[in-house]
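Researcher: Next entry in the queue.
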Amino acid sequence: MTRKMQNPYWADKEKLHVIVEFVYEDGNKQIASIVGDEELSNPDYAELMEKYTIEHIDANTKKRNDERHHRIRQNQERQKIDKQRATQEMLFAAKLDAFEIDAIKNSNNKQLKSKIRKAKTPLEVTAYTVMLLTLEETNVE
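Model: Structure for this entry, 141 residues:
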């Protein structure tokens, strides 16, 4: 069964190890690793070097590396956004929890209730909640 070689790229800096796609007549594809030497004693490596120039393989390698770096940057950005979203959700949940406390809900201290609403971190929410609860406790006694 005959096969074609497609999309070769370097797997090493010495440019003797190539990853290539073998595409067979029946449509099946297989990824192959071909290691060559300067004498071209490996028949697959010799065939590859007849069909593709080093410059072509260099270009494929650069394109593949650029795409990989782009995906890495996208993943990092997505992780950053996901982390920010999780932090915002945690902050919102902390504020909701604080206002579910009857003493907070029924308090007339608008200044501290406002600080809880405007808090930028869960720790701030906790601190203002404790302050308000402490004031409410001392006002009850």
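Model: The mean pLDDT is 92.
Researcher: Noted, moving on.
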